[in-house]
Design goal:
This protein has about 375 residues and is mainly β. The protein is about 15% helix and about 40% strand. The protein contains four helices and 28 strands. The N terminus is likely disordered.
Length: about 375
């Protein structure tokens, strides 16, 4: 059959359109497969609003031997160390007992328990001790009273009195179940609100970070970092799934939070609200049927994030769920070092040039941070 030139051009045009359409469909299909692959690559991704990426694997692994440190009583996981002084919770008439490392005697008690306007019956574990001028301070949160206290530590020690420079009731329009408390600036604090309900073993809302104005107690800013996901689990209670440990950068601009039940560490920029999420390589993924302990504690300085890690199933008889690994990570989410410790520890404390480790049997150990950094360089 003969075709005219115009018919030939028409058929050629139709053929090119078909080829173009098929190419377009093929590209779309590949794109969908890639997106599906990315979104399903991590079982943890559905719980996070921000994207998760796998961390690098090109880092050295070293063994660290720590030195034992004398301390008063037994090292406890809820203590905090500043200038070689240990501030530990007290079960008696005061909230804290203060001692000094290298000495096995008690220095003093602080913060008397009470129900008066400027007293507390219980308090959230202290997240940090910071300086304002020449004095050291701590932010305290009274759980039953839902109050924030700015405690002047050094003035209290000098005078023998409990000196609280601020006492503010926090916003009650939300249920406050705070797990950490950090100073942002002279006017604001930020807390991780877990919204945990211990009576139902569930959460009343999706956990988030919330900034409060310390003068009014009102919510200043919210950071929604998690998705609301319904699930059923026989091992991990819903109130615990999104629990984490966190720390703040020294410039007060970022918070790093590492998940207790997932091998995920994220970095939140408080100014831009950007969040970057990172998944540890070569470790167990999230399994809702197994209660596996991942990050136990986290500390940071200007350059590095130090993360104490387990990765093992909780409550096993061998005791291998107690962490024995320390990761050193930069503020861009890159692993710089994996250190295997000489014993098992449940908490770390960064105090100046020293890193302290608290063991479950009450021992305290230490190592200069310079020795850890030297292993990176």
């Amino acid at each position: 059959m003969l075709f005219s030139r115009s018919q030939h051009r028409g058929n050629k045009k139709t053929l090119l359109q078909v080829i173009a359409m098929r190419s377009h469909i093929l590209c779309l299909s590949i794109a969908v497969l890639i997106l599906c692959g990315c979104s399903s690559r991590f079982t943890e991704q559905p719980y996070f609003k921000h994207n998760l990426v796998r961390m690098n694997t090109d880092y050295p692994t070293v063994e660290l031997k720590l030195g034992n440190v004398t301390c008063y009583g037994s090292a406890v996981n809820d203590c905090i160390i500043k200038d070689s002084q240990v501030f530990a919770p007290s079960r008696g008439s005061h909230l804290f007992e203060i001692s000094r490392l290298g000495n096995d005697s008690l220095t003093c008690f602080a913060c008397r328990r009470g129900r008066a306007h400027n007293e507390m019956t219980s308090v959230l574990p202290v997240s940090e001790i910071f300086e304002i001028g020449a004095d050291r301070y701590a932010n305290l949160y009274s759980v039953p009273e839902n109050k924030f206290f700015l405690w002047n530590i050094d003035e209290s020690l000098r005078t023998g009195k409990d000196i609280y420079e601020k006492c503010t009731r926090l916003d009650t329009t939300v249920t406050n179940s705070l797990m950490s408390l950090w100073r942002v600036d002279e006017s604001h604090i930020i807390a991780f609100n877990s919204f945990q309900d211990p009576y139902t073993m569930s959460v009343t809302d999706t956990p988030k970070y919330i900034q409060y104005d310390i003068e009014s107690g009102q919510i200043y800013r919210e950071y929604a970092v998690f998705n609301s996901v319904e699930y059923e689990s026989s091992a991990i209670p819903s109130m615990a799934l999104l629990s984490n440990v966190d720390c703040m950068s020294p410039d007060r601009g970022k918070i790093a939070f590492a998940m207790s039940y997932m091998p995920v560490i994220s970095i939140l920029d408080l100014n831009t609200e950007d969040v970057d999420g990172y998944v540890l390589p070569n470790t167990h993924r999230l399994d809702l049927n197994i209660q596996r302990w991942h990050f136990a504690d986290i500390e940071a300085n200007e350059q590095y994030i130090f993360a104490l890690y387990s990765g093992e199933e909780l409550y096993n008889e061998s005791g291998t769920d107690i962490p024995k690994t320390l990761y050193v990570i930069d503020w861009h989410g890159r692993i710089l070092l994996k250190a295997e410790l000489d014993s098992r520890y449940t908490q770390i404390h960064l105090d100046g040039e020293m890193m302290y480790f608290a063991a479950p049997d009450g021992r305290m150990a230490s190592i200069p941070t310079s020795l850890i950094i030297d292993a990176i360089l």
